[in-house]
C-alpha cells in the first residue's frame, strides 16, 4: 500500500492531492507472477497555505516486510489531521498497470 500527498497540477491546475494506492500481484493461469496493477483513490483539495506547507510525503507498506499494519496506519493517520475538516473538491479512482 502507498500513501502519498503533495501539491500537483495533474489535472491542469495545482491541487493538494492525497493518493491512497493498493498494489495487486496478478498471476497467470499457472499461478506465476504476471504483472502488478495499482488501484488509486485520489482526493484533491483546493490549494491553501496550510496544505501547501505540508510539502510532499510518501510511505509504502509491504505485508511481507515484517512491519505492523496497525502501526503504519496510525502513523499515516497523523498526516491527515489537517484534512479531517475539509471536503475534497475532486475524487478520482482509477487503475494503473505497473
Descriptive labels:
98 residues; five-stranded antiparallel β-sheet; globular
Shape: globular
Please give the share of residues in helix.
Answer: 10-25%
Q: In percent, how much strand structure appears in the residues?
A: over 45%
How are the strands of the biggest sheet laid out side by side? Answer: 4-1-2-3-5
Determine the structural class based on helices, strands and strand pairing: mainly beta
Specify the oligomeric state: single chain
Radius of gyration, Cα only, in angstroms?
Answer: 15 Å
Low-confidence stretches: none
| Largest pleated sheet | 5 strands, antiparallel
**Number of continuous helical runs:** 2
How far apart are the termini? 14 Å
Average pLDDT across residues? 92
The arrangement of helices and strands along the chain is EEEHEHE
In total, the number of strands is: 5
Report on this structure:
The protein has helices at 49-52, 69-77, and strands at residues 2-8, 15-27, 33-46, 57-60, 90-97. The protein is mainly beta and 98 residues long. A five-stranded antiparallel β-sheet has the order 4-1-2-3-5, with no helix packed on it. The model has no long low-confidence stretch (mean pLDDT 92).
Task: Explain the layout of strands and helices.
Layout: E1 2-8, E2 15-27, E3 33-46, H1 49-52, E4 57-60, H2 69-77, E5 90-97
Antiparallel strand pairs: 1-2, 1-4, 2-3, 3-5
Quick gist of this model?
Helix content is 13%, strand content 47%. It is built from two helices and five strands, in the order E-E-E-H-E-H-E.
Amino acid at each position: 500500500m502507498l500513501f502519498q500527498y503533495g501539491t500537483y497540477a495533474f489535472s491542469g491546475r495545482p491541487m493538494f492531492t492525497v493518493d491512497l494506492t493498493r498494489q495487486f500481484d496478478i498471476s497467470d493461469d499457472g499461478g506465476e507472477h504476471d504483472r502488478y496493477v495499482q488501484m488509486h483513490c485520489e482526493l484533491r483539495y483546493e490549494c491553501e497555505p496550510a496544505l501547501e506547507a505540508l510539502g510532499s510525503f510518501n510511505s509504502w507498506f509491504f505485508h511481507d516486510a515484517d512491519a505492523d499494519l496497525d502501526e503504519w496506519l496510525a502513523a499515516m493517520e497523523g498526516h491527515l489531521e489537517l484534512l479531517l475538516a475539509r471536503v475534497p473538491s475532486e475524487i478520482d479512482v482509477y487503475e494503473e498497470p505497473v
